[in-house]
Amino acid sequence: MVAGDTESVAAEKDAEIVLPKGTYLPINRCNLPARILGSLTFQHQPAALQIDGVADLHHDLFQRLQGMEYPQQRAQQFSDYMDVHFQLNDPGRQGYVQGGKGRPKASWQRMIRGWFFDTDSREGAVLKSWVESRFGLLPRFHRGAIRDFSGDTYLRYLEARSLGLYNTNALEAQLDLVYSYCQYELSLKAQSHLTLYRGINNIEQLEQFKGGRIGNSPDVFLLNNLNSFSSDLERASEFGDRVVEIAVPRQKVFCFDQLFPQLLNGESEYLVIGGLHSINNWAL
Fold first, then answer.
1. CA quadruple 204, 36, 256, 147: dihedral sign
2. Ramachandran region, residue 87 (left: φ > 0; alpha: ψ -120 to 50; beta: rest)
3. Most buried of 137, 179, 204, 208 (most Cβ within 10 A)?
4. Which DSSP string do the residues of 206-257 spell out, in sequence order?
């Protein structure tokens, strides 16, 4: 069988594995529908993924970044732009009144730090909610498995995300820019996929899809709508007895620790948008 035929067979197998109904929304705020960007086909053959309006609204930021050679310069430019555009250092100009109930400190930095501390925190709920809104992928886990959208676990998630977003300053728009800046940086490395690892104690932590193996394809899993992975195999092994290795399209990376080295601890962590993913192998 020639290479073209092999790719065709692989594409046909991918097409047979469809993102299950009830795991995504019919609308989102990016250029691809959720059932496409959450599919196995997208993992193997990714396409450009853009959040509506960001490139046009913030054209000047990305134009400035193009003139900077070093990543440290670009990270500082991005942080400065966020401070000025969203008036993050001036609560009064944001519209907050002294002694009021606003939350001017609930910024993009706090949301990312909160995730790195606890993925099931209120900040974690906000980030999962952002993925749900922008990409249309519903959460599968937040302090428990979410399968029943009238159940207590989902209702607690809704409460956490509401508390996290209430009285904040365009917080989701801030996260839009974090994702877009991350994609800009990753595009400079000219690699379509990143090899990432995740430590697992129980196989039940991953939602196996259709019994896993289909033909000769690797195991297929439905991930939460936002997940933590590591680029360091040893680091990933600290979080579980077994470690899975996945080839993640760069378009599905929301953020990683080295993107903001002064903000986050260098633990080689990546925040990965979910959907269906096939596993390369069990690294450990």
1. negative
2. left
3. 137
4. SEESTTS--TTPPPEEEEEEEEEEES-HHHHHTT-SEEEEEEEEGGGEEEEG
Q: Is the pLDDT of residue 128 over 50?
A: yes
Kindly report the number of other CB atoms within 10 A of residue 58's CB atom.
Answer: 17
Would you kindly state where each structural domain of the chain is located, as residue ranges?
A: 1-284
Give, in degrees to the nearest 5, the angle at Cα 31 between 28 and 36: 75
Does 240 score more than 80 pLDDT?
A: yes
Residue matched to tokens 């109904």: 21
Residues counted in the chain:
284
Q: Which tens digits make up the pLDDT trace of 61-111?
A: 999 999 999 999 999 999 999 999 999 987 776 665 565 566 668 899 999
pLDDT digits (tens, 9 = 90+) for 142-167: 999 999 999 999 999 999 999 999 98
CA angle 206, 113, 64 (to 5 degrees): 110
DSSP-derived 3-state class of residue 22? coil
